[in-house]
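Re: beginner question about structure tokens

> Can someone show what the tokenized structure looks like for a real chain? I only ever see the sequence side.

Sure, here's an example I had lying around. Input first:
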Amino acid sequence: MKAAKCSLLNLKTNNKVSKVSKLNKNLQASQLELKNKNMSTKKKQKKEKHYKPEKHSETNESKQHVLTVIRALGKEATLKTIFPALEGKLTQEEIIIGLTELEKRGKIKIEQKGIVKLLENREPKTFEKSTNESRHTKYLFGTADITQNGAAFVSVEGLAKDVYIPKNAVRNAMQGDEVKIRITSHTRRPEGEIISIIKRAQDSFTGRVDVLDKFAFFIADERKLSTDVFIPLEALNGAKHHDRVIARIIDWKTGSKNPVGEVVEIMSDQSSSDMDMKMILIGHGFSIDFPRGVYGELDQYTDKISQEEINNRVDYREVTTFTIDPEDAKDFDDAISLRKLENGNHEIGVHIADVSHYVREGSQLDTEAEKRATSVYLPDRVCPMLPEKLSNVLCSLRPNEDKLTFSTLFEIDDKFNIKHFSIAKTIIHSNRRFTYEEAQQVIETGKGDYVEELQLLNKISKDIRAKRMKKGAIAFEKAEVKFKLDETGKPIGIILKIRKDAHLLVEDFMLLANETVARYGSKLRLGKKLIPFVYRVHDKPDQAKLDMFSSVAARFGYNIKFENPRQAAETFNTLLKKVEGRPEQNVLETMAIRSMAKAEYTTDNIGHYGLAMEHYTHFTSPIRRYPDVLVHRLLSEILGDSDKMIDKDELESRCKNSSVMERKAMEAEREAVKYKQIEFLQDKVGGEFDGVITGVIPRGIFVEMSENKCEGMVSVEYLGPEEFAYEEKNLRLVGTRSKKKYDLGDKVRVKILSADIILRRIDLGLAEG
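And the corresponding structure tokens:
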């Protein structure tokens, strides 16, 4: 098979054939050498090859694993030795992604005959003087990548080369841990030692317990935890000898070989689906339970609100207030109030659960919330940032209960202009809990509870939205796919959730509150110094990605240009309206989103490009997002006339952790959705479905089935009895004999060949005829 701008090397490893695409041009020699040998096994390839189709791009985890193995193999690192070394840890596609990205970043070079060479010829950019142990010692912070022999490499932001840590200087660091290090020498490469562990990438693991007379040990399934964990008998929590359990590390003193842990859950009687969901959470660094100390702190809180606390707040309990949330929600973060003022204007209150009243800085509750940084929403469960007593009871703005809130209050005239706003600590009493569907019905029919309030709020929200769009906000409106589950958590149907006025109403007022709080926070000073604040920022898109998007859109007949950021937003909005309801809608919407920069948390405000806002933060969801808790605390200190200056570096560190954990949560959610898609399709193998091509790579095409929105991959072997060339510029596959083209957005009919839970893949073929 020949591919445009892409060499292909077929390697026979452990009776399996691996395809390595888009590697160095020097691999062409190896390709020719092995081509004849592999032709005889082509039928076997079809059965043995597998891919993980859900990811179109490389991941940091794949890259780190591949780099670790290359370092460990040293001079013996070749494509033939790397694949077996990673078997069972990464799929073939993940290895390919890792190799491709490492070469692109200049970390490795793939030479003739598949030899993989580490590039160690760059010098660090940031060291200006020796960092020998003295009062001038410079400490650095980075992420640990543990090798097979127990040594480590620590990647430090700003350094061109990773810092090598010998095995005897790794201390107790594990894969992915955030660590504090000291440089000890600068020879061929920087070398150092780990001083301390700043944050564990993972503290819970699956495995088995071995129970002895006076103590027990936990042996983890994952290589990430290479040492056994000591479990005191009182921490077994009912586990017996050789039980499969989830255990959590609770202490690992410096110099101690074995950490101390406790059994969190016994897994013996659980379904494989339930176990896999928990393993997805654990594997991305989220604990499925809370430490004992957190529950101990919770005991001090009740639902009673003291009169002293009420006296210190603005009382909104007599003002009409309600919540609008998904039908299955239990953690009600926000409520909206509406009342008419004596001057004829209206006051709208956006009331947010006052989580910071309960989660005090420095408490164990706070430590755990900061570590998690976000709730994780899987198809069949929620892994909450806060324990249920807080998230679903004390903080949740449930109807007919007095609740403590932090509020933004807007006075709006009859032309929907904001005349005045204020921020205050309040107490509310929600009169009604609406689901989105219930609120939508009231808006549409003009009948039901609080009809006048809902219809007025809907009119005001549309005005707010129109003004935001006029400023250059981008309107991405992708339908949400949800699973209908049976009582065991197995998917039995797929539901498309379309956002209507009720959804947009809530979103508009939350955006207004977030923007208002950010603008207010940006102006706060202590004396002449600006007080650091938490922002949610979104950078301008990369021009190269915009140009790529333009070329793809042109193939569908849309001639668009991106000349400047403001014009780009207008172009996106115009195009998104044009493609609505058309076959190419999903492809172009998805690519448009991918062409955007990623939003993140920081103390350095650059504005939010996608929302066209100069100031933006997250204030409205403190039950499920830690940055919102930080914002509430900052406002509390300001409202309380604190004269303490906020430590910007510490605040930035918390912002960075929240951004990292947010990405991990998204990865966990995507993996869980893929799992449920596969589970849903297992009894549909052999069925045929119409679909649309959503991705094209040298190894095949990704197809989203229109009926169920599940995505699988059609490998090139199933595209036809010929070889296909990959045109990178056009993102298409072309038959070398028939010239048959497979383009993004093309309609195809596919047949489900397999839905493999273990390998996490959906294999498709083209339906006959």
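Each token stands for a local structural state, so reading them left to right follows the chain. Residues 1-58, 120-135 have pLDDT under 50 and may be disordered.
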